[in-house]
Structure formats: structure tokens, C-alpha cells
Design goal:
heterodimer, A: 121 residues, mainly beta, Immunoglobulin-like, four-stranded mixed sheet, 1 helix, 43% strand, B: 162 residues, mainly alpha, Cytochrome Bc1 Complex, Chain D, domain 2, elongated
């Protein structure tokens, strides 16, 4: 006597396998969005902690004059006009403390306008 | 004792009055002797930070960054080329605004140039830019100063052309 698996059993087995595969595949996480306000001569918040390897989008908004932000060690930068927003998307690939500076001259305190990123494991 | 004190005070007041009435405050060019003494004093004594090295690498990107930072407001007195091109008052100040390509400036070390940009030079009219520019920007300007373009090659600052 030959044993034939019922079509329903095959379907159930395939469904289970598919569910298992879907569940064990790492989810594509959406980048973390962090709003940063630029105003002469500060970034708010001024300190941000990020995770290494975790995609992030810094949403930079200027409320007074054109500003910018540059993280030389991370190789990323963006500029933003007055009243507008600009997105800086990146994935930190090394741990440490990285200080970004305003990259658009904005007045007497321009040189002190900093945003510090703490990238941790 | 009191007589000596009042005598000294009187002489000091007379000296002060003499200064007020006889010192020339017109922005005339300094004489050769004054220039020589001040040159020596600045290079050897007054301008500090002789040994600090520029932490940035001298390459095309740093020169470009320096040129960009220089254009923030240095150009108002030094011109786009650092040689006063188009600056209408450059030779009407006392002392005149120096050409940054000249030996007077180029003979400073990188550390001294950083110090001058940080703190300025009294009473020349050179302001200090610490905190107005970041350290990175100032060091990049030092690199730009070592690679200034040919005088006049960048034209005049926009603020003086209309």
C-alpha cells in the first residue's frame, strides 16, 4: 500500500516553512529619526547617543539663518536654509565621540556651534 | 613724603597732557624704525604659539576648506586673494593691511598664524576670531595662507564692486 500525502498536508507544511523563514529573517528596521534645531549658536539637542550600525536620519531645522552641520570624521554633512529642514541620513560605522560643527558661517558665535554624537556598541 | 608724591603726580599729569596735545593720531604710515622694532617684537616676543603644528593635512581639500573659511569675513580687509586686491582702505590704515603673501606674514610659523587669527593683533585692527571660527576652520585658513593664489587672480570682494 502506497502512502500519499494529502495535498492539504503538503500545503500546511509549506505554510509552516514559509512562516518560519519570515520569522527568522531580520526585520528591515526603519531609520531612527532625530529632529535637531539649529539656531544661532546652538544645536538642540546638543548631544545625541547613537548605536553603531543603526541607520539614523538627523532632521536638521533652522529657525533663524542658514546653517549646516559637518562631521568630518564620519564623512557626512548637510546644509539648511532659514525656516527649512534638511535630512542627513547615515549609519555610524565606528564607535566614539564625534563633534560636528556648523558649516555655514552664521555670525560671531559660529565657531562654537557644535553637535556631539556619541556612537556606542 | 607728601611733597615727593605730589611732585611725581604733577610730572605724570604734565606728561599726559603733552601726550594728548602732541601725539599724532592720524593714520599715517609708521616710520621705518617703528616698523623694524614692531616687526622684531611681534615675531620674536609678542606672537605666541611658535611650536604648535597644524593638525590638518595639507592637501587640496584643506586648501579649499581654508579658502571657504577665509571668505567668511577675512576678505573684507584682506581681499579674496589675501593680498588686499580691491580693498579700498588697505593702505590707508596705520599700519597698512599687510599682504598675507609677503615675508612679514609668511615668516610666522603655522602656530603663530593660528595664534594671530585666534587673538588678533592690537592695535593693528586685526581682530581675534576665536569662537567666531572653529579651530578646524582657522587651521584650514593657515593652510590656505601657505597656498595663496596669484594677486588679483580672484577679482575683488563683492562688497566693494557695487
Amino acid at each position: 500500500m502506497k502512502l500519499k500525502p494529502a495535498p492539504l498536508s503538503i500545503f500546511a507544511a509549506m505554510l509552516l516553512i514559509t512562516l518560519f523563514v519570515i520569522q527568522t529573517t531580520p526585520a528591515q528596521t526603519a531609520p531612527r529619526r532625530i529632529e535637531v534645531t539649529a539656531k544661532r549658536f546652538t544645536f538642540t539637542p546638543g548631544d545625541i547617543t547613537l548605536k553603531k550600525g543603526e541607520p539614523v536620519i538627523l532632521v536638521l531645522k533652522s529657525v533663524d539663518v542658514p546653517h549646516g552641520i559637518i562631521f568630518k570624521e564620519l564623512g557626512v554633512s548637510t546644509k539648511v536654509n532659514k525656516g527649512q529642514t534638511s535630512e542627513l541620513a547615515f549609519t555610524p560605522d565606528k564607535t566614539g565621540t564625534f563633534v560636528g560643527h556648523c558649516s555655514v558661517f552664521c555670525g560671531s558665535g559660529h565657531g562654537t556651534m557644535e553637535l556631539t554624537l556619541h556612537v556606542v556598541d | 613724603m607728601a611733597r615727593i608724591f605730589y611732585s611725581i603726580l604733577g610730572v605724570a599729569l604734565l606728561a599726559l597732557l603733552a601726550c594728548i596735545f602732541f601725539v599724532n593720531i592720524k593714520a599715517d604710515p609708521p616710520g621705518k624704525a617703528e616698523t623694524a622694532v614692531i616687526y622684531w617684537a611681534k615675531h620674536k616676543v609678542l606672537v605666541k604659539n611658535k611650536t604648535q603644528k597644524d593638525p590638518l593635512t595639507d592637501n587640496a581639500a584643506a586648501i579649499s576648506d581654508g579658502k571657504d573659511a577665509f571668505s567668511h569675513y577675512c576678505v573684507a580687509c584682506h581681499g579674496l586673494d589675501g593680498q588686499n586686491t580691491g580693498v579700498p582702505f588697505a593702505d590707508r590704515m596705520s599700519p597698512p593691511v599687510p599682504s598675507l603673501a609677503g615675508m612679514d606674514v609668511q615668516s610666522y610659523t603655522d602656530g603663530q598664524l593660528k595664534w594671530i587669527i585666534d587673538y588678533g593683533i592690537w592695535p593693528s585692527g586685526m581682530p581675534g576670531s576665536k569662537n567666531t571660527l572653529s579651530d578646524d576652520e582657522i587651521w584650514s585658513i593657515v593652510i590656505y595662507l601657505r597656498h595663496l593664489p596669484q594677486a588679483g587672480s580672484l577679482g575683488e570682494p563683492e562688497m566693494y564692486t557695487h
